[in-house]
Every structure is written in structure tokens, then in C-alpha cells.
Amino acid sequence: MILSSFALAFYILLSPNLSYSLDKRIVNDDPNNPWNLIPTYQVYENETTDVLNNNLFIIQKPDENTNMFTNIFTSFFATILLLTGDTSSFSNWSFVDNPELVILMVLFMFAMIIYIINVFITLYGEVNDDDILGVVYKMKAKAMSEIELFYMLPHQRRFQKWFPEVLYFDVELGEAQELIKELISEGKWNTNEFPEMKQDLLNKLKIQHN
Questions:
Q1: Is the CB of residue 76 less than 8 Å from the CB of residue 7?
Q2: Is beta strand 40-42 parallel, antiparallel or unpaired with respect to 57-59?
Q3: pTM as predicted
Q4: What distance in Å separates the CA atoms of residue 203 and residue 195, rounded to the nearest whole number?
Q5: Which end of the chain, C or N, has fewer beta carbons within 10 A?
Q6: Rounded to an integer, what distance in angstroms lies between the CA atom of residue 80 and that of residue 71?
Q7: Which residues does UniProt assign to the signal peptide (predicted)?
Q8: Which residues lie closer than 8 Å to 60 by C-beta, 6 or more apart?
């Protein structure tokens, strides 16, 4: 939504106001006319400062990329390039003579920075510090299950040493006790899954649970 809004704003600001043709030079007062944006070169005689002819210029012919804001689709693409830090699409305009363009570019970068920061804050907020390690372990288990399911041959999937039924992770005694007590208090300690193993774990950690 932000990209589309700024792409439309750049399109309105930088699109040509008068008709033009890339095949035929059209000179007018439109600052967004591709013929007015291309580089021009003046011819000098030898290495002197005297101009050979004041009316003699070498003009580079414009193309579709001279002004990428002639239609909304290329304007959207140019805005995406700006998001990556590529300002070449705006290099044909003088920033000194176009302060409104500079303001719009600064607002775009500021808005995108705020948006990206909010995305990271939201993603991080879904996982608190106590659950980060558990999420990492779950991701490891999920990756192993996907490898076993999609990238292994049937006989390879039967290797218990590669893909055991239960995955074990090292954890300190105090952390394990606190985690299990928290799961029990929250009602998340399901004894229907691996009941013997869980009861043995409770006995070793000296945790009472009925």
C-alpha cells in the first residue's frame, strides 16, 4: 500500500504534462519531457574555450528509461528500486531545482524505515525471550521432518539413527525444572504423549505431579 501510494505520487509529479515522441524531437517547456531530460553536449574547437558554434549541440536520444514515470507501472518499479537505495531513476532531475521531489523521496524512505521496524517489532513481539529457545528447537524438528518427508528415499527414512522418534536437547537442571513447572501450571503438560518418559523425567527432576 505504501509503495503504491508513493509510486502514484511520483507518477503525478514526474510524468510529462505535454505530448511527446521518442522518435521525433519535441522541444517544449515541460520539465518532464524526456527530450528535456537527456544530456546535451556542446562542441568546442580543439582544446580552447571557444565554442565552435553556439547553435551546435550533440543530443543523446531518449529511450523508455529516460523518464520511468511516464506510466504507473514503470513508476512502481522505479519506486521499488528507490527502496533498495537505487536513485538512478531520479538522476535526470536536479534536486536543487526540485525540492518537492527531495521531500517526497525523504518521506518515502522515512515511511519505509518505520514500516520495516514495525514489522520486525511485530515478529519479535510474537515470541518472548523465554520462548525463543523453544521456537528454535521446533524449527529444527520441523526442518528434519521436511527433509525426511520430501528429500529422502523410502529406505533412508527408516534409519533410526538419522531420524529418531524422539529428539533430545541438552538443558540445565534448573531451567528444565522451571519450564516443566510452568507447563504444568498452565495446563500444557500433556501426559497422554510419552507418559512413561514424562513420568521418569518428573521423578529425576523431583517434581510432584498427579
A1: yes
A2: antiparallel
A3: 0.51
A4: 12
A5: C
A6: 15
A7: 1-21
A8: 38, 39, 40, 41
**Which residue reads 529428539 in cell numbers?**
167
